[in-house]
Design goal:
mainly alpha; 5 helices; transmembrane helix; Dolichol-phosphate mannosyltransferase subunit 3; 2 domains
Length: 97
């Protein structure tokens, strides 16, 4: 089962439950007390999911670790590659030597 099919199945079940609540097919005291809440619940859940997603992305951006050792190693490899290419006759326009 692919992830797309799993998500479609979940949304299909949630949509069917929501539609049955909106059309009064399921008897529930919550529906009679708060019909507007049931009606707008997909929009509310979508807004909450967007807030959650933005929070997770911002948290991970702010706590992103710098890899100083890996950056230094990469710079060394770049210098080695430039040296090897220069030996082979390649000329760089912006020579950093």
């Amino acid at each position: 089962m692919t992830k797309l099919f799993e998500w479609l199945a979940v949304f299909g079940v949630l949509g069917a439950v929501w539609l049955s609540l909106v059309n009064n097919k399921i008897e529930c005291a919550l529906i009679k007390q708060h019909p507007t809440l049931i009606l707008f619940s997909p929009v509310i859940f979508l807004a909450l999911f967007g807030f959650y997603a933005a929070t997770v992305v911002l948290y991970r951006v702010f706590t992103f670790n710098n890899c100083e050792k890996a950056a230094a190693e990469l710079q060394e490899e770049i210098q080695e590659a430039r040296t090897e290419l220069t030996k082979l006759g390649f000329q760089f326009k912006d020579n950093h030597d």
